[in-house]
Amino acid sequence: MKIEEYLASLPDSIISGEEVELREDTLRDIFRFAGLTRDDIFYHLGCGRGKSVMIALDEFKVKKAVGIDNNQDKIIKARQMSDEKHLTNSEFICQDILNSDLSNASVILYWFSDEKINEKMLSKFANLREGCKVITIWGPLLGCIPDKVSFPYILNIFPFKKAKDLKEQTLAIFETDCIDFVVAWEFAERYTKAIGSKDSNSDRFLTILQTLVIWINAKNLGIACGNDIPDPVKSYMGILKTFFNIEVEHLLDKKIL
Description:
Mean pLDDT: 89
Radius of gyration: 19 Å
Distance between the termini: 20 Å
Order of helices and strands: HHHEHEHEEHEEEEEHHHH
Low-confidence stretches: 13-17
Helix content: 40-55%
Strand order of the largest sheet: 3-2-1-4-5-8-7
Largest sheet: 7 strands, mixed
Shape: globular
Number of domains: 2
CATH topology of the largest domain: Rossmann fold
Strand content: 5-15%
């Protein structure tokens, strides 16, 4: 089956990221990357059970931390945990992020893969206060040049810098003008280490899949090194097809990042 069919077969909660919660060490890396300080008002859009809010308040001593999620059960658990820790400067809101008031945020963690939501949120982000930092993972804000990158973490500061095209944006993220298999693998592995479970057996599969996504997209944008398909890319395409019945070759000449 084609990779699109494979992704369509997965539960919506996996594709949307609803059931993916970042590890505590990953959250700490993100906060250090963003330079979170005592003066910040931190928002996590899609906060789940609120670990990010706890860490931002307890360890990084932010002025206030707000978690927003549309899952009532998760928000209830987050509030309970916050009460147990006596974190008075926390707030948890059960709400669609498209309806959220973000006007006082100085740092926002935002990790959604749904393109329709991302398009709508970009319009909403147009009302952020000047200097507000928006952190994304893997994918950048649509059409924007990042101010800082430590892949897979990407930071944009409002007002955002617009990219003239996808190629310029991609080059800014990968910080190279030529992406080969080694670069693709390195960046895919960084992503896997950031979001994967420390004892997950699926991490290797995820790294292979994301490596191919990065390299194929680079090839389609004209920023892959050389004109030929590297032997490792051919091998992993073959592995996916033979052992997982997933075909990705048809993605060549399409932009999939």
